[in-house]
Each structure stands twice: as structure tokens, then as C-alpha cells.
Batch of 3 targets.
Target 1
Amino acid sequence: MAFRSTPHAAGQFDHDPGGTEGPRLGDAEPVTLAVMQALLGFTSERRRIRHAQAHLRHLFPYVPGRSGYNRRLRKAADLIAWVNRLLARDTSPRTDTAWVVDSTPVECGRSRETAKRSDLAGWAEYGYCASHSRYFWGLRPHLLCTLHGLPVAFALTGAKADERETLLGMLHAEPGFAGSRPGQTVIGDRQYYGRAFEHDLAAWGVQLPRPARKGEPSRAGSALFKPLRQIIESVNQTFKAQLDLERHQGRTPGGVMVRVLQRILALTSAIWHNHHTGQPVMRPLTAYDH
């Protein structure tokens, strides 16, 4: 799946059963709580709810229980994606002429029984992570981001999905943003190769410099790839180390998807805020994690 720009339907509320208090929870509140949960490092939703009930009553007079929060959050997935697009468009790094693309593994279970019985079976699958020399059972978030780390497009696939097809799918899901940017450069690793693939990207006006594969002649600009490739590795590390992506605790396709979107929106929100407050570096989350 990629970000979609369709806004979530408005006017959905949790109501007081007795009908005496009126609307208690709008669409924005669960999304705000989800972003705060990611930035503050709450991997346990029970702990997040206890913290909100104890310390955030002045901001959220009504805090749903765990099941209600999870249900509302899953329903808000389109809203989270739309808000992410809205904030990204209002942040100047999105206009950069160079972006980077990569995927990273996210485990969804380790035991054989989990792989057989999980609701994620059939989507999650066994794959290999060459960067860490390990096999895993799970999914791969694919991220297209600016050199400042601002997420531009996103997809969540099985562990063995072809990275080239996924990138093309991300571009097709957003037909306006790539075709209107002739000369856009997207920097990828050796897995983004192939004459037909590069021809398809050229039709979008996208150039894809990458390191040469074994047996290929040296490619122009290869000396620049390593430091630029480190940017996407650093962004992935931000998701995993600071935003606890690998501790998502999702058990269903919808649950995993919204938890990944939750963390992407948290990073986008921090970069958006840092940009509009004139911070010299846009991606640090230190000011938001305590």
C-alpha cells in the first residue's frame, strides 16, 4: 500500500451511551494519541492508555480503552496517510531534486507456529536481510524519502516482494508527484536494476543512479552513492531505534499497517515542526521523546 490523498470521512465520534455528554472523541484525537505514543516510546498500548488517563486528561477528556483505541486507530489509517501527505507537502525538503529509496525488514514473529497460525500468514513471509545477514519472517516497509529524511511515499509488502516493482507501484499510486517532476533523481542500491525498469522510470521523468552490480562497468557518480545511501540507512534506524518499529505488536494486516503509518506520521510531524520553527537539522526527535 502507498499513501493515498483521500481524506478520511469526518463526523465519526464515540458517544456517551446515555446520550447526556454529546460527542466525546473525534477522528483527530486517536491520531494525535498515536503520534504521541510513537514519539514518547510507548510500545505497550496498555501503558500508553494508563499514561494518557493519568496525565493527559486536560487535553483528552475521554480516553478509550485498549480495544476501543485499537478499533478507532485501524479505522483512521486513511486519515493518518492523508495527514502525512498534507504535512509533507507543507515542508520544503519535499521539493528536493534528489530522493533515496530502500526497504528494511520488520519481523512479525519467530516461531514456526506463529508463521502457520498468524492472521498475517500469506502476507508476511520468510525473507533474507543481506545488510544484517539474517533470515526473518515478516514484512518489508519500502520508503521513498528526501535527503532530510522526510517520507515521500511508502509501501508495506511481503519479505520477498520485488523492490523494483514496489517502487513503480509507489509511483503509480501517486501519478501526479513524479510525472510533474522531470529530472527527479532517486538513489537506490544494487537491487534497483534492469534496462526495462530504468526505461519505466525514465517515462516518469525519474533518473536512478545506483552502484554497479557484479560484472557491470563502473557507473557515473558511484563515489557519491555510499554517503547518500547512509542517509536512508539512518532513516531506517530512526524508525527502528527511536520509534520502535520492530516492536509494533501488530497481529493483523490492518493492525501492522496502521502501526507503521503511525510511526511514519510521527517522523513527518517532527520534520514538519522542525522546518517551520527554523531548526538547523530537521530529523532529530530528541525534543519530542520526553
Target 2
Amino acid sequence: MTTDLETLATALYVRIDDSLAGTRRPGRPPRLTDAELLTLAVMQAVLGFVSEARWLRFARSHLAAEFPCLPGQSGYNKRLRAANSLISRFIRTLARDTDLWHDDVWTVDSTSVECARSRPTVKRSELAGWAGYGYCPSHSRFFWGLRLHLLCTHGGLPIAWALASPKTDEREVLADILTGDQDQLATHPGQTIADDKGVSRHLDAFMAGHGLTLLRPSHHSRKPWPGEHLLKPVRQLIESVNDTLKGQLDLERHGSRTPSGVLARVRQRIPALTAAIWHNRANGTPLTRSLIAYDH
């Protein structure tokens, strides 16, 4: 098996189509199947097409043989926004196919998702009330938007994610992520979570109640626990995952001004990263999260 975009798209389509076999939505079947829709969405994110109109023009010129029934921009947009459960199922299907799914240590972190810069844009944005002002330590700047909270394995494989206001306590978001999918905890009993958040009795009680172990830096007034120096490399891993989402998958160039639009654009990039990792692990590629072979 070779490592290029055509091979990734073919393998992806076959895997999705197989996983959806036997399931059919009521009513007239769409001309563009769900497997084709998800494959197109992943290819768009990997190739760096932020604009859906530009992507569909490119697809009609270069991918007409593979996708003969491409919808218009409006139809494509609506299908992506309605594919929430489908994409979540697709991410989990690919994740289970990799050996990284069985890792017993997960790490969690958040990164900024800027949604506006000018004050007039902030005032008229439909995101007002959900998005807000926050501070991004990685870039040493304030921003207006949301925070993407990502839970992943040591190999960078996304397990779960959430978008929340910068004002929301990240420890509360972590608890919601972990309980949002009961199958997630049922299949990983006794999981260890690496975090850098401060001390929280509520979070400690939550972790203990669900049989989870939380690894985090010691309070500055306490003596470091044995092996704490090994936590820093683990924490740096998810920083590199966030850099992949922003640098290679254009997370901050989503260009949306509505809640459903932001969710759809972010949701599109998570399966793109998952698909690249899934394909790289199947090929034995040394760089698990590398997208270089697929972005042209």
C-alpha cells in the first residue's frame, strides 16, 4: 500500500462504506452517498481548501470521475452540518482500527479557535453568548472565540473533543468529555489521564468515582511526585497535535460566524487527522501524524 492522497481516499471510502453496510436512512437515497460525503470532507481538509465553493470547483475539475454526483455548495454545506452523528461514528470506527486505541494513557489539552478580531464583527456575530474573550499562552495573545478541548492518545489519535467558551472551567469540560460517551469509559476501565490543570477536589472525586487516574504537576507548595519529570514530554505531545490542526489543517481559518458552521468546520478537521493517522499506522509510516504525503 502506498502513501498518497488517492490511496488514502480509496481506502477511506471502502472502510466507511463497509461500516455503513446494512444501514439505510428512510426516504429517497441521496445521489452523493454518506461514504462519498465523508471522503470528500476529509480530502477538503487535508488539501487545505477553506472555502467550500473553491473546493467544489476543484472537485468538479479534477475528481469528476471519482465523484460524478457532486452537490451544489448549499447542498454540500447542509449535508456536512447534518452529519454530526455520522462523523462521530466514523472517527470511532477508524480509531478502533488502530493499535493506538488500546493505549492506557490519554492526554488532554485545549487550544484557541479564534472566530473574530474586529469589534464590529464580534457585535454582529451569531456566536455571541457562546464565544468570548480568552487568553492563549502559546501565542501570548488575547482572542475572541472558543477553545477546542482535545483528548488523545500518546500517538496523537483523537479520542474525544469539545468546543467551549474560553470562560468555561477546563476541568468541567474534561468531566463532560469523559462522560459524554459511556462506551468510551466502558472499553477503557482504569484509564490514566495526563493533564496540566490545577488542583480540583471536584475533579479528583469525579476521577476516583469513575476508576480513572489523573496525572498532573504537583502544586508549587508540595514536593514533586516520583516520575513527574516524565509528564512534560507527554504534555508536549498534545501541543504538537494542536500545531498539526492549526498549521496543516487550518483550524484557525475556519471562517465561520455561526455555531453550526464552526462545529461543522472543526468537526471536519478531527476526522481528517484521524484518517491520516489510521492510514499511516496501516502503512507502518514512521511519522504517525504526518500529512505531507496527502496535502498535494
Target 3
Amino acid sequence: MKPFRVVSLFSGAMGLDLGLEETGKFELIAAVEKEKSFCDTIRKNQAAGRLPKQLRVYEADVSLLDPETILRDCGLKRGDIDLLVGGPPCQSFSTAGRRGSVQDPRGTLLWDFLRFVEGLNPRFFLMENVRGVLSAALRHRQLAQRPDRGGSVLDEDELAGSVVRLFADDLQRIEGGPYHMDCFEVNAVNYGAPQLRERALFIGNRYNAVIDFPNPTHGPVAGSQVVDLFGGPGLEPWRTLGDAIGHLNDPGDVIMDFSPRKKEFLSLVPPGSNWRSLPEDAQRESMGKAWFAKGGRSGWWRRLNFDLPCPTLVTMPNHASTSLCHPTETRALTLKEYAAIQEFPADWEICGTASQQYAQVGNAVPVRLGAVAGTVIARKLQELQSREWKPFGKAPESYRVIYVQSHVRTRQWFKKGQTFVWDDGGENGHAVYERPQTLRRVSTL
């Protein structure tokens, strides 16, 4: 069978695309990316034979590109593309920072993706984003002005989830539809990635097909046993930071390292701990006002450990508040280690300045997650192909949001005045959270 044809938007360093190619079922025919250094990465790996020769690379702003251009250049017509994939820039929806929602111009890139769904009319689409997009509001109201603080009742476009609801409404109305869409909240670590990374995956199709994402294949270890949260057979233990980088004899020479001042503080932190292992005067001096905060501080002066999955990679590993310090060396994780954690091929080359290279790898979709999603979509495409593309029955009544244990807490850092240091090779049972109560939940838009 011929591979299914893929067009990629917001391609970046191509983590999602590499995952699709790993299945052996897809062929990437066009990639659109705005940043020059990111395009240089794509072209360099293409020249080295790691990407298809016929791949067309568009160094362009998606918002200014006409979908018809891609169809014309590739000699295709509307409806010929099997899969459209992409992850619109997500900072405006992230719960890690100030949420601007679609007041931030980046938010409108969701609708540029939708414009390409309409323009290309693909059989399927896969859109990836931060999990926070599912709760984002079209218009963000400051916490101090909300009803529980004395403010007026929230308008409809200020309600949580209004971004996705509007996107879903517009998806129903595009020419060439209707498209059914299933949204999945997942965590890459549950499928064998050595990294905690929550993502939202939107899978749409124009054949009334209801898509199901698989239950996790990997789980946490309690003592010597894998904790089988889903009751299925043969769960494997989570893969760890040690699994990803423990074998690297040469960590590479590209690194955004900590300053000498930061290294002074980190040198006092043992593996598997964070700012809580510092003397109180050093905590206050180094953390400023953050020392008085009540939450969100586990990343301050964090030194990693080999026996747990890596925390979510960020674009700059050398920030004091989100530090990714090597377990046994007082330095940040290198670019080569970043790429290994994201499971890029060992020979994959990244172009640009150090900060541009880290941004490409840190923002990428874990290759493993792309492969899992690609397998799900390829199976459904093959089933439809065997049906000669006959749609399934009538369209489902609503779009679904399926939560698949995406929120994972690996360990405790502090409780009742006690600091917990996770010792590699130790039992560490005192720092393990209880099993989560909600494993899989289905709701509708």
C-alpha cells in the first residue's frame, strides 16, 4: 500500500513528523515553517537523506500562505491530502505563564490551522497543543476581577473552554465538512517517552469515524512492581532520564549553561532535590519574592535524578526557577541530551544559535507521541481505504474530550516540614503520591 500523504504546518524541528514517519505508513510531502533556523534544520537533514527528497519546504508564515499554493506545487487537488498535522504556537494558552488566550495574536494561529483544513480538505487532521488550550477562554479576565472576588458574572467568551468550543463550532461550518473531532489529554511518559509532557491532541476526520486513543503502555513503579493503573496486561515501567542519557559518553558541546552565581547555589543541592535543600538564608537570597509563594516552586534550583522520568523540557534549561541541572554534574542539560530525551534520531542535526537549537528541541512534540498518534490514525485510514472511503454511518452527535491520565505526579518534594530527596537506587517510598482517582474520563463539547 502506498504511504499516506502528509502536509505539516508549524513544523519546527519535526518531532511530530518524525514520529509519523517512524510508523512506516506516512510520507511527508510538504512542510511549512516560519523560522529560518528551523527551516535550515529541515533542509540539512533532507540533504543528508534523513527526509524524503521530494519534500517541499516552505519558509513562510502560515497566516500568509495560501493552501492552494501547496496543492498546485505538489500536483494535487483539494481532498487528496490524507493527513494535515501541526502544532500552532501555544504560549498564549499555557497555564505556566500569563494566559492571554486569543487576545494574544498567536492564538489566532489555531484558526490558520483551521483555514488549511478547509483549503486542503484532508481526510484526517492532527493538531497538537498544550493541555491548557482545552481550558482557555477567548477573553481572559484577571483573577482579581472574577465573580469570587466581587466581580460581575463571566461573559460566555470568558468561560473556561470557550476557545475550543468556538474552534469546534467553526470546524462544523467549513466547506468540505462536516468534520468529526476527538480531543485527547495525554502524557508522553505513559507511552514510553522518558519525559513528563502533557499534551492535547485533536484528531479530526470527514468520515464520521470515532477515534480512540490507546490506554497507557507504561506506568509508575512502586517498590519492585509496576503500578497498573488501567488494569491492562503487561504495563512496562516508565522510562527514565537515566534510560535516555545514561549511555551518552559524550554529552556534546552545545549548552546553555548556568552562570557561576547559579552554580554556587546548585552545587549545594544533592541529586533529586531542589531549593529546599539550601540553607534558609540562601533560599531567601536566591529566590526573592518567589520564596514567599505558596506553590509552583519545585523547579527552583532543581537537580534532576536518573531514576525518574525527566520533567517537561523547556526552551531554556538554565533558568533558576525551571532549572534542569544534570544529576551528577553542576551544569544544565546539553542540547544532545535534550534531543535524546525527546527521542530524536541520534544523527539528527539541529541548526542555528544555541538558543534557537534549544527552542527547536524544547518545543518539539516527543517523537514517541507522534508515533503513537500516527499508528492510531494510520489504522483508521487503512480501514477506510478498504471500505473505498465510504463514511461510517451518520455523524456523531458531539465532539468528545477524552482525558487519559495526563496529569502525572511522580513524587513529593516537601510535606509537613520535611524535605524529600529522591535517591537514585533507593526505595523512596515515603515520597510517592497515592494512585490517581481519575484514570480515563470522557466529556463532550
